[in-house]
Protein 1
Amino acid sequence: MSQSAFGENSSNFKFTGKKRSPGSVSPVANFILNIIFIVFMALCMLPFILVFIISITDESAIAANGYSFFPEKLGTTAYEYIFKIGDQMLNSFGISAFVTIAGTVTGVAIMTMYAYALFRDGFKYRRFFSFMAIFTILFNGGTVPSYIINTQLLGLKDNVLALILPLCVDAFYIMVLRTFLKSSIHESIIDSAMIDGANELKILVSIVFPMSLPGIATIALFSTLAYWNDWFNALLYIRTEKLFPLQYLLSQVQSEIDFLVRNSSMLGANASDAFKSVPAESSRMAMVFISTLPITLAYPFFQRYFIQGLQVGAVKG
Amino acid sequence: MKVNSYGTEAKNGRVSTRKNLFLLLMVLPGAIWFVLFKYLPMIGSVIAFKDFKIDRRGFVFSLINSEWVGFENFKYLFASSDAFIIMRNTIGYNGLFIILQVVIPVAFAIGLNEIRSKRFSKIYQTGMIFPYFLSWVVASYFLFSFLSVDKGIMNNMLGFLGKDTVSWYSEPEYWPLILTIMALWKSVGYYTVFYLAAICGIDSTYYESAMIDGAKKIQQIRYITIPLLSPTIVILTLLAIGKIFYADFGLFYQIPRESGVLFPVTNVIDTFVYRGLMKMGDIGMTSAAGLYQSVLGFTLIMVSNLIVRRFDKDQALF
């Protein structure tokens, strides 16, 4: 019965709630509630839609009327512009993708192994390593000592590892994963496998890993989000434009759109020749839109594990 | 009694040692990470008591050779006019967020649970957790498209209505509201879905018997839903209070777009430390501010964990 505990829970709690408290609200109340949520949902989604509309608005229309949900003239200049001179954008996209994949894989592997050891009752040093992880949730040295140690001692200045390593492990997720293992895998399964002569590695790979996949997927999701959306580590450690991740590039472009031109393989002058003028406003928004695209596309997958994650998290903390 | 999986091999000490060795290998990468990225900085926080100067001969050399100055850095920090402002802003905003991030999501979750069409309910949830998945940089662009002085939607609308436009990024009085709206915009959906999961977990027989007793919807909410949700609410709130000295750096750094005029209402401990370190290179004062924050945070989280334990031992962090 793989993932029984979790599977049953999640079907009970399924957030669409097949099961409903009996007795429904009055039609009027139902109508008002629907209106409230439609408005709130619109508030959550509209800015994203606006940004997309701006990105496909013709630059002249923006100059004349400002941003608008209903632009006078549409155009794809912004996207043409980005693709033509957007070496930096492509490069940053690559950095973000690499950092996200490498970081998530490494982090999830480290955290899963750690959580597994803490989950095993027989582990002699369990209490010590448990404390080692939990204490980092309670107390931290702060930004300044971290910054100094990472740059002075670990050589992370202007190094792509500075984007990966600091976000790699989160003690909180280790504890969540350990709780998940505890609630979904009974020690007796491991005992019987041992009696059958399986060794530790075999137990981990062929029993524990498959059973803990939903928990691992949740951690992986949060890790992916954290890496893709990270700009803070770039802000602290990265100075070389070649290493800028996408989110950090976006925050830099806020102030100067010619950033793109400067880093293009086409010379700045040639680049602006190709376009009558730099479509600054729409390109910026096009970049924002492109940067959110992977998340928007992965959204159905994200949402599913996200809800599961809330329930895993609810087990502890 | 549960039989320990090692019990069977207890007679064979060598096997047990080998298993512990295997599990030690499992924790090793994580343990190294904790030492490098968590414990070294903790030790490094002694620089708050030093006049730290970066030396070419390496970190250890600089650390040992910097002069001890006792609490000088702290004195300097608290003498500055910023100390009060950043404390007020950090605690004020976080306090407000903690309250609103309980009240609104709980109300929304209850409302969402009552909506008749479960398909609509699911659509609303999908829409409202969307902002949670985006970065503050992206959120900052979103806001800018509304608040830009010359092109933003808000000023367009004000102009349309014949009112004076507002130069949003240089008018501090609007920012407590704007920051609160942004914080809620990003998190309310997340917490709503969280509380909704908890509500769906409530045994439906409670409601059935309440119905038989003739309880109205509002009474069911008042006497069943809210009391059964309260342990979750209390625990999340206490854990949030434990983190009240840590501001959301992205919110306070990206959303106001570095507008200096706004600092009196947007500067929090985290942004203060960042700017002091990167813009002014003031290692002493910023590390003092950071350590002060960590110690207060540690004390608070210990206290709130103690309180959580009294409510529900299983929910406590440790």
Protein 2
Amino acid sequence: MKRALLVLALMLATPVAAVMPDEMLPDAAQEARARAISKDLRCVVCQNQSIDDSDAPLARDLRVLVREQISKGRSDAEVRDYVVARYGNFVLLKPPMEGDTLLLWLGPFAILLLGGAGLIFWQRRKPVATPDAAPLSDAERVELDRLSN
Amino acid sequence: MLAEIGHFALILTLLVAIAQSVLPMLGAIRGDAALMAFGRSAAALQALLIAISFGCLMTLFGQADFSVKLVANHSALSQPLPYRLAATWGNHEGSMLLWVLVLSIYGAGIAKFGDNLRATLQARILSIQAMISVAFLAFALFTSNPFERLFPVPLDGAELNPLLQDPGLVFHPPLLYLGYVGFSVTFSFAVAALLEGRADPAWARWMRPWVLAAWVPLTIGITLGSFWAYYELGWGGWWFWDPVENASFMPWLIGTALLHSAIVTEKRGSLAGWTILLAILAFSLSLIGTFLVRSGILTSVHAFAVDPERGVFILAMIIGATGTALALFAARAPMLRSGALFGSVSRESGLTFNNLLLMALTAVVFLGTFYPVIMEAVSPTNKISVGPPYYNLVFVPLVTPLLILVTIGPMLAWKRDDLGILGKKLLLPVAIVAVLLAGLVLAFGWQQVTAALGLALGGWLVLGAALVLVRRWWGAGGFSWRLVRTTPAATVGLVLAHAGLGFTTAGIATMTSFAAEKILVMRPGETAVAGPVSVTMLGAEEVDGANYRALRARFMVSQNGSERALISERRLYTVSGNQTTEAGIGVSPLGNQYVAIGDVQTDARGQGLVVRIYWHPLVGWIWFGGLLMAMGGAASLADRRFRIGAPQVRSPLAPTLVPAE
Amino acid sequence: MKRLLFILPIIAFAGLAAFLGFGLTQDPKELPSQLIDRPLPEFALPGIVEGGPGLASASFKGEPRLLNVWASWCSACPQEHPVLERIAQEGFPVYGIAWKDKPEDSRAFLARYGDPYSGMGSDFPGRTAIDLGVTGAPETFVVDKKGRVRFKQIGPISPEVWEGQIRPLMQKLRAEA
């Protein structure tokens, strides 16, 4: 499917980190908020970039929009909701925490916990006892290293 | 003519590979030495034929022969020779040919260097390698023929994407492929072990060099890729959690786990099932990475021209390889003899926990990369993205215990250790790092406590590595040169690799918290400041390059009293019309100054050039650490004991030692 | 119990393979619309002719309409244009929004390729397009009698899409209360 999207994507073969001086807000704190929010918003016409990083015209429009909303006094959450209302959760680089995404957020920790629990149970069932060895001399240490490494 | 020769060689290779996948396996089952020997000759022949084929393709690229479609699409008359040559693998078809070339070289390697392997094991491994070859050769020949002709022949080519016209292209893909494809060998080892029903310490010892042979180039390849992105993309980013980057990181994580698991199997005979599973997973992840890059299933800045049809073929290959291997695993692995038992505080248990953490980390990267695909099926109207915020939130808490464990692991004794003894060994390093942490918090304040913790963690790792040497070199009778001289290469490897990890950690922590940035419009004569870096624009002019026109701006950068000149360019490549930015980077051991220009813009004071100035403290440590890790792996690989063969039982043992089981 | 653990990997892999296979049939860049079954976002755009009529969302009541977002720089739009003309000839109203397009460029495009539109708005700043969740051109919205968005076509409307999906929908919307 040929779309104007391709035109925009070709223009992107010129990666230059994207926030332009003329977009930046005069208030440093607000600008910092704008940058932070922009880093978390996906450029929907690009290949895996945030609107903070992208050169695309739509990314620029969205950066300006984010700054306008901040200047109007909206909170960070409200600004994000504004963009999500138009483009959906796709535009959030931090996926929402909801029923569908529980596996995503908790999966790795679950693996760790379950695996760790499994290991502990496995250990408990097979105790090991060995006599303690006397400390080794120099020559014995070399020998041991040679044998076991 | 060359294209036809190359094409024909490829077809011949397919035939040889088919023979090699069947006959040696038969030989192993029947104990037929001749059939097994055939495997070795076939592997060498395969490598030779593919080398011819690849040589033909590369020559065609070097000669800029536009009658070959691939060359016409990825090369141009004005393209400098190194990039004409490297363009051979700067596209889908050519890179597939590189894949099979590396695959055949590894196969030939098993044939040549594997003479100390059990003959049946070697034969089975060669057969499995050949089966993988058959799949990829078929894929290349039937869907991605690099030798297709183009008629009428164009007068000039379409030029390689200028972002790729860089020394990085010469090294990065071949190194990564040596890594990805190298894991095919360990995969073959694992499947062969399942077929034989044996995964004993000898098997693990034979396999370890091959794990390293894949892991080392993969480490360098990823490090190089990160460095390339840093200086090429114009703003100093060095990792983006892009799906294709993740596709290289996952095999690396599992490969690291495999390396450590193989050590346990080799020394104690335990964790054989886990080692086999990791070996299967490592290569499967390599295959899934290939799938990601070429199928179009996920968007990525790295993706080749995507084609879902190719995706179907690759998916079929993955199902064949991984599916078969995992089915074998389900059937045969429970029957493997379990090795020696170990206590809950022992080096084995430490390494087991290490494996678990690495698998959890791989799960983070995997889930993050593939969850959008899963959601598409589960909840099509709710499309999601997973980007850096997710990875930072989940990866960091999981990697921290791992990094702490890395220093503790080598202090543990095999089989059974005692928490009291361990505690005594830990007193000194914990004390040193605690002092370091306190100092950092005092210096930088509580707002930067995460940076302080990261730096302290880096210190913990480097210190832990140094302590391995200290413990070895200071015996009961004090410092001993004998102990220094007889340090095994594998120990040096461990020290370098773990220390490298520490440098990388420190670099990442510092970059995350202390990088400085300034974006503004500048005119000649003006000065701007970012952190400790002060930049004065000297002037701008137009220059011409080999195949581009550029706007070049000159800057004088000063920091802490010393000055240096930096240049940044915006280039327009004439054939393709693509633009790139080349940044000016001032490198020093403590950090980089980074200046990149943008377009002409107007601000309150008139027309000027957009300039981005960055201070990147300790960023070089990230890649220095990566190189150290690779050097550590190489040192381990050089250990003489790998070439001697199966571990020999030496007798008599000293009476005070506990015999290993 | 131990056996079960060894079977886990292949089961997990089977699941993954299924998802990957399904994923191959999807386009990762196609973004489903957030506006389905919701009212058309408010807009009041100027026209592409100086002093001429523009386009406002308030007018989208009483009849089902197509709202086509296009631009003179859009490479697929000339390809879609004949289909739009056919749609207009068949008696279905097509309205347009020229996205990030200079009015003179829009006028030149229509002069060259024909003008099937019953009304046109010019969204040079691109703000209305953002409200509509537009990610590329061309995109077309089907709006019902009550001013609600019922369908979004991403990419050019091909004859197959018109006959198979959009026309039946328009006919159904006409029959709706």
